[in-house]
């Protein structure tokens, strides 16, 4: 069986996999069939945006060379399949670090661009796409495009956050951030409720490069909304050499039941809160700060044989104090517990991409073991709460949202469809945008039929 699945383990594995050489040769001939291809990085997307069940995925991981690096400017050029961990190891001795990193270093450069990833410093740095200076894109007409940031071409803009739908990203040039060291001066600030967190968040962002909060989603009564605000800045003195990116522990097989049940999560949340509160202000390694779960191989297997759903929303700032508690309460009322519930404040740095998830407001990430219909019902309720607040649901982490939710979250989806390469399609895009397009075409056809019928009646009466 193919190992090319999404990280949520909800969707079937990709039935057909091509190597990059075969895909490049096919594209250069201009004979790729419509909807037959989609680039696949390291499989860290939670849903079906990285899958193409009716075609083939192109495994880009063998295209993993660093092509050039200028230690004077911090500009690096690399192939699309290189991992962020490899980039960090290459540039750290020279005092550089990626300006934006997600919660894992095991994502590919191409995947980071296609998903326009964000991190704990969106309030200062924006998304990964803000640092892409150029990229090389191969399209199904056989053309190789060298797209540059300053050109602001439609194809460049559509490729940033474009979910791999505009063609095959071969390589990219990215601007890195100069840092005094890899180590992080971390500070843990407990808060007793969400109102206290919201009171702290803006000032924390202003004072720190990185800020993120953990909240105990299961807490009720006087502990409801409790959590920890975790802030950090690169230490003036510390390590300049990246540590090994290998896994410390592992989950070697799919566990027959989820171990992340409600009693376990209550114990875990209490222990996590107690341990972190005791830390106060201290220096920590970058891997523990940015990538705490990378030390456990295949930790997604802990959710059990049916996998997990993740729900990430962004809520406008003016609605956050009422909507975020409502989302947490909905999960509790449904009897679902979320492992490591994360809350962050997004800033106003705009992405250069056509479609990008982050926008000013607060983002909440919840993940749940898949319990079938009851979990899907919860996810739909979370969607409704989000959309009614004027917020958006993250498509890069989705495996089941309705087309209407996607349209409400991303009104510019039609512009991406207009720039989509016909040979490239994902299961996510089929499930959402293609259905929206089909529905719109049917409505338009019906309107034309009705309009034509009216005109005929009027002509006859005259």
Automatic annotation (TrEMBL):
Residues in FAD-binding PCMH-type domain copies: 10-179
Stretches that traverse the bilayer: 155-177
InterPro entries documented for this protein: FAD-bd_PCMH, FAD-bd_PCMH-like_sf, FAD-bd_PCMH_sub2, Oxid_FAD_bind_N
Transmembrane helix found in the keyword field: yes
Record's keyword terms, sorted: FAD, Flavoprotein, Membrane, Transmembrane, Transmembrane helix
GO molecular function, one term: D-lactate dehydrogenase (cytochrome) activity
Biological-process GO terms, alphabetical: lactate catabolic process
PROSITE patterns referenced in this protein's UniProt entry, alphabetically: FAD_PCMH (PS51387)
Keyword Amino-acid biosynthesis: no
Family indicated by similarity: Belongs to the FAD-binding oxidoreductase/transferase type 4 family.
Protein name: FAD-linked oxidase
